[in-house]
Amino acid sequence: MTEFFNQISRRKFIFAAGASASAVFLKGCLGNPPENLTGGSTKAQPTAQSVANISSEQAPETTTVKLGYIPIVEAAPLIIAKEKGFFAKYGMTNVDLSKQASWGSARDNVEIGSAGGGIDGGQWQMPMPHLITEGLITKGNQKIPMYVLCQLITHGNGIAIANKHQGKGISLQLAGAKSLLKESKSSTPFTAAFTFPHVNQDLWIRYWLAAGGLDPDADVKLLTVPAAQTVANMKTGTMDAFSTGDPWPYRLVQDKIGYLAALTAEIWKNHPEEYLAMRGDWVDKNPKATKAILKGIMEAQQWLDNFDNRKEAAQILAGRNYFNLPSPEILADPYQGKYDMGDGRKIDDKSMAAYYWKDGKGNVSYPYKSHDLWFIVENVRWGFLPKDYVDNNAAKARELINKVNREDIWKEAAKEAGIAVADIPTNTSRGVEEFFDGIKFDPEKPEEYLKSLKIKKVSI
């Protein structure tokens, strides 16, 4: 167990993760601006679509489940599956989507489960399900087995920078700003923030900084900032950067708070983002209901990837019960791959948009074990997990992944739903991945990947 997990108290962790019940609902490092303080859960509503003629072999053991979500575009498959009747189509007629105040709140709620007033699972940054399974971020280090069931989305994120840094060379490539940031560390260090440590948003910032020759733990100041403080800190100048996801880049640029130095689609094209994961005991008790949930999500993901449907999707997501946006137009451009980066650069490229079912490398929904491995290897890279997770060709990491990643259930659900054979991956690895700095991650050689990285905490 790492020093971080041994030393940090639960109270401090909840605060650090922004788990206050009054927290702004956010994505990674930025969520709804402070004026959007609505909460509660959205109960399952009657759907106009009838339940499909389900055979007794596929009929779910229960029609009820409670899934947590954070109001950002990663949650769209859950919301669309409910609103368009796709959950009900497969027999899940009582899906309760529960808006979570923060990632810390989601973690707390999955600990107690729906029986205790919490949730059965939902949307997660990675590798939160693995850390919960290992008891590394739970109360009393209790091990709560979780199952990763599908990937929800690719893309839809970026690195936001305060406007005061315009023209200083802080962009995707940091070569021009490296010396400036290093020199400032002794007086006024460049401060980058996120809302939950050791997962997607933290890892995107760290990879970007390290690729530019900056040590995230030595050359800049990294903070875990409670949700309600992110926008205020950027406005007052006490925070220089943070991870942000759609729909908030539009707000950042329009409100002249900041600009986008890079999209994560530029850092790692077609990268894994957030996932559906559930308590293992719920899945074990309700295997047919689990597959019914997956079928509904798969259908929603395909519906979302029809760009003709995205105007309607934006209207649904922007609603008061979900994102509570002042206008669905905030989602419209990013959903078409159009980004005003706020520094004079504009992107109009559909391949950079969020995708839910298929992207340039194939299936998005299928949970590749090789992607789980990258997230765990990055945790080892920065000293969040001990090196023994990657020893012997990552034997310990692979053992954990095999327990948590239930791609077999995804395949069963896909076959029952009639998904084309060509859309069902035959290998649990997506193969070699390449990042914007030319570094490659070969899941068959994780130790070589670590050795190739110049900036890291682990000795290898």
Structure explained in plain terms:
- One of its GO terms (cellular component) is plasma membrane.
- Pfam families: NMT1_2.
- It is found in: Cell inner membrane.
- Belongs to the CmpA/NrtA family.
- With 460 residues, the chain is of the alpha+beta class.
- It has 19 helices and 19 strands.
- It has helices spanning 3-7, 10-16, 76-83, 86-89, 103-112, 128-133, 178-184, 200-211, 230-236, 248-254, 264-267, 280-285, 287-304, 310-318, 329-335, 369-381, 391-404, 407-416, 446-452, and strands at residues 26-27, 30-31, 41-42, 64-69, 94-99, 121-124, 146-151, 157-162, 191-194, 221-224, 241-245, 258-263, 275-279, 338-340, 346-348, 358-359, 362-363, 433-434, 440-441.
- Strands 3-5-4-6-13-7 form a six-stranded mixed sheet, sandwiched between helices. Strands 10-9-11-8-12 form a five-stranded mixed sheet, with helices on both faces.
- Helix 3 (76-83) packs across helix 13 and helix 16 crosses helix 17 (391-404).
- It is globular.
- The two termini are 19 Å apart.
